[in-house]
Write a structure and sequence with these properties.
Radius of gyration: 27 Å
Strand order of the largest sheet: 1-2-4-3
Largest sheet: 4 strands, mixed
Structural class: mainly alpha
Shape: globular
Number of strands: 4
Strand content: under 5%
Length: 697
């Protein structure tokens, strides 16, 4: 019976490309349901007016903001505009979200399969990465859109750019140029930065300028991109008409790397260590070597983009969103970790390289770049002295980044779940080894400390844990005297105990983190037991966490009927929008007095006087800046003085949306109210000189 069960499990693991692709697609869908489906969400505020053509429709809204979308340059939404209606727009966006995440998972598999040639391991690692990003979320540097919880054309642009780089790595020049031209039609900014990386890659690979391959690539890319380039040139005025203040206040996260010094340093250390580790690993194997070169070229492009706003005047290049290119760097770094993991698991029995490659991959799930940098640099330490010194320098750089401020996202219980998943998977890997050296144990304990610290709210316990782990991070890459290794190992043990003690008043988090710590400790001890060497289920233990995640994802999806789930507040807000659409005249102007970036116009189909998200229109229609900035300043001043009612009257606002009734809204009466929102109707006569009126353009 046991033999039959094992044979069935072995047959179920992917051994053909179609089975591997199916597993990756299922994992991507499951991870999407685990994160949840959202609509409308974030960038959908700008996608929906384009898809439903608000300005060109009979109902509108027809205000200056919505008319500006005629200059929105992306061919991605044009086909969907032909079929989108109010009734099917939600289904359309849900379909695009699922498709985008699935294709991104398949793109990662294509990289691992194309570079390593290993189907089974590539499928398992790629499927696991789908859940890594599901737990990771947005990145602070550039606000990347990868494995998102909403439909966005940028994600499709990212995967097309990644596909173009892969085809170049595999020496498919014509296919790469065609795919990159498609990427330009989807997201021009991302494709132009990727084209720069492709040019550097071709130059580094061929070590000559103006070769036939380079002419073929850029000639075909330029020819196919010409219609989009003409559209871009005709669609708007020069960005030089946009004040620098707009970039500082609205687009800072897309433009200025030094606004996020810790994230910037860790991003560069991550990308460089990944590129160098894969490059040195690929000696004698062209695809692996080329992947390392591509990674390093992308890092150079990101460095140029990050430096440009500080050395170049604002007119042109600031609109290219240089830090958005970090999306490409992040996924390529994860792909590098996956390639190293697949190669070492398939071809090496030594514990340290496998554990280092696993650490490089685990950092993405743990949301701790330091763990990935540690893994990459540890692999560099096993190479030549030059690579070893480079790895140590990058480790020191990443450690130094902790001295800079960090806009950390709030730690959630998902971080503790991620730590447990990493611990279980790593524990299963450990059981394949007969014994572990002290250096192996030091690397293992460092991953455990940094991973556990990532799941604990900031405080003294986290500070002590990180300070204990940092010496080990360096010692594990540059083996010192045995007493130093033993001392660093002891420090890590103290840090783990300190973290657990720090959670004694947080039972829910303690219950999640403690099992992971015990699993790692138990696996390290049990790896020395001879009776485990013939344990029949050992090699399948690595697959179990992935299977559990897939089941959990579809289980959560079933709870939401595999559809968009809204909170009670979101349902009340939608009810207010629907009431406004059915009971107010077309063209009525609304002002949300407490909600920013709420997108009230999306379902009410009524113009909103001011919303912070409307500032994005300045990028494709610079003339809108004066109106948006005037209204922004007026709202700020009114809120500070507590005179939003006066502003509503002076600006000829027809309806005000509030969370509760406000006594200072003289001249307005309640028209609609539910559990969380109230809509007030203007009863005063309109003024002849409204504040911040729209120009007649």
């Amino acid at each position: 019976m046991r033999t039959r069960w094992l044979a069935a499990l072995d047959a179920a693991l992917p051994q053909k490309d179609w089975a591997a692709l199916l597993l990756c697609a299922v994992a991507a869908l499951s991870s999407t349901y685990l994160s949840g489906l959202s609509f409308p969400e974030q960038n959908n505020l700008w996608h929906i007016p384009v898809v439903l053509d608000f300005a060109g429709s009979a109902e509108g809204p027809h205000d200056l903001y919505n008319r500006s979308f005629v200059n929105f340059v992306s061919a991605f939404w044009l086909p969907f505009r032909l079929i989108a209606t109010d009734r099917n727009v939600e289904s359309l966006f849900v379909m695009l979200q699922l498709l985008g995440n699935m294709l991104l998972g398949l793109t990662i598999y294509a990289y691992l399969r194309g570079v390593t040639g290993n189907i089974r391991a590539s499928a398992l690692v790629s499927s696991a990465f789908c859940f890594c990003y599901g737990l990771w979320g947005l990145t602070r540097l550039g606000y990347s859109e990868i494995f998102v919880t909403y439909a966005t054309h940028t994600q499709f642009g990212i995967l097309l750019c990644l596909a173009a780089l892969l085809l170049l790595v595999l020496q498919r020049t014509i296919g790469s140029a065609i795919v990159l031209a498609l990427g330009l039609a989807v997201n021009a900014f991302m494709a132009l930065w990727t084209a720069a990386a492709c040019g550097l890659f071709l130059l580094a690979r061929e070590r000559r300028v103006l070769t036939r391959t380079q002419w073929t690539f850029f000639g075909l890319f330029g020819l196919l991109s010409l219609p989009m380039l003409i559209w871009m040139a005709r669609s708007g005025s020069s960005s030089g008409k946009i004040p620098l203040e707009y970039f500082d206040t609205y687009l800072g996260g897309h433009v200025y790397a030094l606004d996020y010094p810790q994230a910037a340093l860790q991003m560069f250390a991550l990308g460089l260590s990944a590129g160098l580790a894969v490059f040195q690993e690929g000696e004698g194997h062209a695809p692996t070597r080329h992947l390392g070169i591509a990674m390093l070229c992308c890092m150079l492009v990101l460095a140029i983009g990050a430096a440009m706003p500080y050395v170049n005047p604002p007119p042109l290049f600031l609109l290219l969103h240089p830090l958005r290119f970090a999306s490409i760097v992040e996924i390529l770094s994860a792909i590098c970790a996956g390639v190293l993991l697949v190669r070492h698991v398939a071809g090496s029995s030594a514990p340290l390289p496998i554990l280092a490659a696993f650490a490089a991959a685990a950092g993405f799930m743990l949301k701790v770049p330091l763990v990935s940098i540690l893994g990459f640099c540890c692999l560099l330490s096993l190479s030549s002295p030059a690579f070893r010194r480079a790895g140590l320098a990058l480790s020191l750089l990443s450690v130094a980044s902790l001295l800079f401020p960090d806009r950390s996202a709030e730690i959630s219980l998902k971080g503790a779940l991620a730590f447990d998943l990493v611990a279980v998977t790593l524990g299963a890997v450990l059981l394949r080894f007969d014994s572990l050296s002290r250096q192996d144990a030091l690397l293992l304990s460092t991953v455990a400390v940094l991973g556990a610290a990532s799941a604990v709210p900031a405080g003294p316990a986290v500070l002590v844990a990180v300070l204990c782990a940092l010496p080990a991070m360096l010692i594990v890459q540059w083996p010192a005297a045995p007493r130093w290794t033993a001392g660093a190992l002891l420090l890590n043990m103290v840090a783990l105990v300190w973290l657990l003690l720090g959670l004694r008043h947080d039972p829910s988090r303690l219950v999640l983190i403690a099992p992971g710590v015990m699993v790692l400790a138990g696996a390290a001890l049990l790896s020395r037991q001879t009776w485990l060497q013939n344990f029949p289920y050992r090699k399948y233990a690595v697959v179990m966490p992935l299977a559990a995640l897939i089941v959990a994802g579809f289980g959560k999806g079933a709870g939401a009927h595999y559809w968009v789930s809204r909170t009670p507040e979101q349902r009340d807000f939608l009810a207010a929008e629907n009431w406004a659409r059915a009971n107010t005249p077309q063209g009525s102007v609304f002002l949300p007095v407490e909600q920013e970036d709420a997108g009230f116009a999306l379902f009410s189909r009524r113009p909103v006087w001011w919303d912070r998200s409307m500032g994005a229109a300045v990028m494709w229609y610079p003339a809108f800046h004066d109106v948006w900035a005037c209204r922004r300043d007026a709202v700020r001043a009114a809120r500070k003085a507590g005179r939003m009612g006066d502003l509503a009257r002076d600006a000829n606002i027809d309806f005000v949306i509030a969370r509760s009734r406000h006594a200072d809204f003289t001249g307005f009466e309640t028209a609609f109210e539910n559990g969380r929102f109230t809509i007030l109707r203007r009863v005063l006569p309109r003024t002849d000189m409204p504040v911040c009126a729209e120009p007649h353009i």
